[in-house]
Amino acid sequence: MTRAPGDAEAVVERALARARAAGAVQADAVLVSSESLETRVRGEEIDYVTQARERTLGVRAFAPGAKGLRVAITSTSDLSPDAVDRTVDAAVALARATAEDPAAGLPEGGFAGDAPDLALLDPADRGVSVDARIAAARAAEAAARAVDPRIVNSEGSQASSSFHAVVYGSTAGFLAGYESASHGLFCEPIARENGANGGGMQRDWWMSASRRLAGLEPAPEVGRRAAERALRRLGARRIPTCEVPVIFEPTTARSFLGHLLACVSGYAIYRQASFLAEKCGEPVASPLVTVIDDGRLPGGLGSKPFDGEGQPTRRNVIVRAGRLEGWLLDTYSARKLGLASTGNAARGAASAPGVGATNLWLEPGTKSLDELVAETERGLLVTELIGQGFHPVTGDYSRGAAGHWIEGGRIVHPVEEVTIAGRFDEMLAAIDGVGNDLVWLGAVAAPSLRVARMTVAGA
């Protein structure tokens, strides 16, 4: 955490002072500044280059009510004094017209007071040029096409860099800011059977993401891995409907955590919109499953020193050895449940705080993906998931999938056009293998994992 840049700090302080003068009993403001660069290359051609710079101020004002506070949010990209004043006045006026809510209001204390070095930015990366990012995209694209003549086209290779500054303050006395960066490299080649003579076509992808440019995988490696993934999907076929073990590689296993997050958000819990709502403290998954959310993981793409309400981020163990330890909470959902915030308030400049994960991961096990496959007599390795077929209230799970068929502990052919289905609670309990290959492609990560039995609907 750092002191906010002078002009940004002054804008936030002005907004808070204006809110008090306009009659708000509480208020907070967040100023988000961003600069971004993205380029995509297909073959030798540059598809596009985009550069953007944006600054947005969001103001949340609370007006008094007999049974609770009234709240409204406004935002502006015009940071002139008059525009800031108008934005604040509008927020206070709107708040007076909203319904009272006994749970509304700023945190009552416990604001972040430390300044940890979370390695969110390498200052040397600020000078990255458009040409350098184009060169990285081209290198990934060229490497993918050089792997095999069957790589005949691509959806493009993209390189991106973005820099962000956040300044947050509230009438409770908190004012601080931090800066961060994120860089990415992505390649999505297309493979065709029999080269130029026609045949089926398949695509796949690989990517790398990091807070630092130096932390990215080399562009040729990203392109090579993407091409190899596309090639191994050639000759894909459908399979008969069956019930078998299903292995999820890291790129698909991370979706489990997204579904779990929907079920442990404080909002889902107090609304009784999660099948886990009454399960805190109980076993809900295999003993092999430990899930952690940590906003202070050094270099993590979800790391930040404080959340969207100024509360310090922290390490939260959601599931420990299969047992559900607790929820992820912001101030509002915590009040609804009679609990305390876990430092998971996520907020954009123009939106109210809600619950969001920071760096969310499944603790790796000891086996490699190859070992999980070798232990599986007959089953499916999932490398792609399609659709959003998950219901957090019932736990019903059904998604389209593609991957590879396993016989006798060996991958024998690629598979496409299947659906995998089950109940999420049963799937969590049936995890009987967790890999050692934790892969961070973003702020959510998982190693390979195997579910002992699922329905695979095919031909």
Note down, in words, how this protein is organized.
By secondary structure, this protein is an alpha+beta fold. The protein folds into two domains: 6-231, PmbA/TldD fold (2-Layer Sandwich), CATH 3.30.2290; 236-459, no CATH class. It is built from nine helices and 21 strands. It has helices at 6-21, 81-96, 130-146, 219-231, 250-264, 266-270, 331-337, 369-374, 424-429; strands spanning 26-42, 45-63, 70-76, 151-170, 175-192, 201-203, 206-210, 242-248, 291-294, 315-320, 323-324, 345-346, 354-355, 360-362, 378-386, 396-407, 410-423, 431-434, 439-440, 444-446, 449-457. The strands form four sheets. Strands 1, 2, 3, 4, 5, 6 and 7 form a seven-stranded antiparallel beta sheet that branches. Helix 1 packs across helix 2. The chain is globular and about 70 Å long.
Short note summarizing the structure:
By secondary structure, the protein is of the alpha+beta class.
List the helices and strands and how they pair.
Blueprint: H1 6-21, E1 26-42, E2 45-63, E3 70-76, H2 81-96, H3 130-146, E4 151-170, E5 175-192, E6 201-203, E7 206-210, H4 219-231, E8 242-248, H5 250-264, H6 266-270, E9 291-294, E10 315-320, E11 323-324, H7 331-337, E12 345-346, E13 354-355, E14 360-362, H8 369-374, E15 378-386, E16 396-407, E17 410-423, H9 424-429, E18 431-434, E19 439-440, E20 444-446, E21 449-457
Parallel strand pairs: 8-15, 14-20
Antiparallel strand pairs: 1-2, 1-4, 2-3, 4-5, 5-6, 5-7, 8-21, 9-10, 9-14, 10-11, 12-13, 15-16, 16-17, 17-21, 18-21, 19-20
Helix pairs in contact: 1-2, 3-4
